[in-house]
Amino acid sequence: MVRTGHIRNTLFKHILQEPLLHFLVAGSILFFYLSYNDETKQKEQIVITQGKITQLLSQFKKTRQREPTKKEKQGLIENQIREDLAFKQGKELGLIENDSIIKRRVQQKIEFMLRDSIAGIEPAREELEAYLMEHKEQYTIAPVYTFKHIYINPEQHDDLHAFILKLQSDNLDKNYRNVGDSIMMQSEFVNISATQIARLFGQEFSKSLDKLSLKQWQGPVKSGYGVHLVFIEKKIPEHIATLKEVEKQLRRDFRADTQKKAIDSFYDELKVQYDVKVEEDQ
User: Fold this and answer.
1) Are 255 and 119 in contact, with CB atoms under 8 Å apart?
2) CA separation, residue 87 to residues 46, 92, 242 (Å)
3) How far apart are CA 1 and CA 135, in angstroms?
4) Which pLDDT value is given to residue 34?
5) Cβ(181)–Cβ(151) under 8 Å?
6) Are 262 and 121 in contact (CB under 8 A)?
7) 191 and 216 together in one domain
8) 81 lies in which domain range?
9) 28 within some domain
10) Contact at 8 Å (CB) between 182 and 268?
11) Is the pLDDT of residue 231 over 50?
12) C-alpha span between 183 and 30 (Å, rounded)
């Protein structure tokens, strides 16, 4: 008798440890909860609008590159019904209240809607000009140069100074492409910004150009490769951009700034409707 009881207790403990049983028990409790609540409240509608169906079909076609079959269409609708049902029930069960992932997703959707509502706005020219003046420090255009250069590799010359003097005594305006040392870089640049020059030759070379005079061979000017003789044909000094020069970028920045202000305003108005408290460590 004792042995039979021992076997029964052991078997009962084993059953309780089974994950499937836990699932069935939890499911039964949840079903009971849902059934009880369904009897005590009026049924809430779940509406799958024609617009939503069109969106589901469009997403399917974009992903699969074909129209869905009748069965697939019904499956899409059924999945949407389940999604809506699960979401509504999750709210009632309090599953959503402290779920940061769901909260973040809702926040992203609201902010996307706000941005999308402003995306089509085309600012007037006067608004762009005012925006440019308000943020002119952001639209300062770096100097632009048209120049040619002769590369000299210091490691290939015992007397670098003498070699440079010899080059400067030649008619460099005509022969500059055929003298100097070999380098995998073009010998002439047209309307290139100081920022682009810094990427190609290094910051020291780019800054040195600002100190050179126009229309004469000068140097040596140091770069990341060695030294150069440089002839600056034309220079457009650093300046605040005109509307014509940056209009495309200005329109993008204006919209982005307008969208940000709209979102900030949206949250400011919402905060007024709530008593927002932030608990901090004392």
Assistant:
1) yes
2) 11, 9, 52
3) 91
4) 54
5) yes
6) no
7) yes
8) 44-97
9) yes
10) no
11) yes
12) 76
Neighbours of 272 (CB within 10 A): 7
Do 252 and 116 belong to one domain?
Answer: yes
Place of tokens 């020219």: 125
Q: Tell me the two tokens of residue 122.
A: 């085309």
CB atoms within 10 A of CB 43: 6
As a whole number of angstroms, the distance between CA 225 and CA 187 comes to 14
Q: Are 234 and 145 in contact (CB under 8 A)?
A: yes
**Cα–Cα distance measured from residue 37 to residue 31, given in angstroms and rounded to the nearest whole number:** 10
Report the share of the chain in percent with pLDDT over 90. Answer: 28
pLDDT band (50, 70, 90) for residue 196 = very high
**Domain check: are 151 and 128 in the same one?**
no
Enumerate long-range contacts of 89-93, CB under 8 Å, 24 or more apart.
89/34, 92/37, 93/33
Q: Closest Cα partner for 261 from 125, 104, 123?
A: 123
Give the DSSP per-residue string, 123-189. --HHHHHHHHHHTGGGGEEPPEEEEEEEEE-GGG-SSHHHHHHHHHHS-HHHHTTTSS---SS-SEE
The Cα 127–Cα 137 span in angstroms is 17
**Cβ within 8 Å of residue 135, ≥6 positions away:** 253
Is residue 279, in this structure, part of any structural domain at all?
A: no
Cα 270 to Cα 79, 104, 263, 264, 265, distances in angstroms: 33, 17, 11, 10, 9
What pLDDT sits at residue 188? 93
